[in-house]
Each structure stands twice: as structure tokens, then as C-alpha cells.
Amino acid sequence: MPLSEEELRLLEQMERALVEEDPKFASTLRGTTLRQSARRKAILAGVIFVGGIAVLMTGVIAEQPVVGIVGFLVMLISATIGLTVLRGQRSVAPPEGQSQSGTATRGGFTVIDGGRAGKPRRQRHHSGSSFMDRMEERWRRRREDNGF
């Protein structure tokens, strides 16, 4: 259900007041700072990963397994952090002016239609159906969606 004109006007007033009160916080809500910091973290994780490779190879060449293990752990941790940051970056809102389906951008903030984004969920009618019936229904729906 879309917002009424009055609700949109009130929302815009609140956004302007927030920008005037705390521009840094408003910038964070827009996602620009989050995107930039996520990009920096991903680049730093990549550099540390390369450093971990160097430490691992040094341990192998020097025939010191402890150094090699430390290098591997550095690589593992940096890869985990880097992938987490990159996955989180996908969920950040698009730049101002662009919009995803079901969203409207106003004043740099993303307003999600009704608080829900993405595909609408199918209604479930599970009253009286057993677990196996629901699993069979799910399996049938997957096969239909994939064209089998």
C-alpha cells in the first residue's frame, strides 16, 4: 500500500530535519559512507590475503611449518572478512536517483513499498496438512519453477 501525500510530506520533513541535525548520520543512512567503507575493507582484505600468501610461501621455503600455518590463517581470515564485506555490499541501496523494483528514492533515502522488498511471498495454506504434504508441495513447485 503506497504512502499518502500527507505521509510522504511528513517523511520528507523528518528527513530534512535529520540532515540538518546530524549530516554525518544522514550520510550513513544514504549508504554512501557504508559503500565506501565496504570497498576499502574489501581492498584491505585483498592486500592482507596477498600478504598471507607471502607469509605462507616464506614458511614453505624456510621449511618452518609454523610460519606457513600462520600465513594460511591470515589468508583464511582475510578471505572470510573480504567475502562478508562483498556480500553485505550487495544489500546496500543503489545510488541516489536509481531505484529497485518496489522502492522509491526521496531525498537520498530509500523508501521500501510497505516495508517489503523483493518477490511477494506466496500465501501458505497449511492448516491440516502434514509435514510430508508440505514438502511434496514444495518439491512440486520447485520442479514447475525450474521448467522440469
State the gist of this model.
This protein is 65% helix and 5% strand. By secondary structure, it is mainly α.
Task: Describe it.
Residues 118-127 have a biased composition (Basic residues). Residues 133-148 have a biased composition (Basic and acidic residues). InterPro entries: DUF3040. This protein has helices at 5-21, 23-30, 32-61, 65-90, 131-145; strands at residues 103-106, 109-112. It is mainly alpha-helical and 148 residues long. Strands 1-2 form a two-stranded antiparallel ribbon. α1 packs across α2 (23-30) and α3 (32-61) packs antiparallel against α4. It is flat, with a radius of gyration of 24 Å. The relative contact order is 0.10. Mean pLDDT is 76; it is low at 92-104.
Number of strands: 2
The sequence of SSEs as H and E is HHHHEEH
Question: Over all CA atoms, what is the radius of gyration?
Answer: 24 Å
Span of the ends, CA to CA: 35 Å
Shape: flat
- Count of distinct structural domains: 1
Residue-averaged pLDDT: 76
Number of helices: 5
Helix content: 55-70%
Placed side by side, the strands forming the largest sheet appear as 1-2
Strand content: 5-15%
* Major beta sheet summary: 2 strands, antiparallel
Structural class: mainly alpha
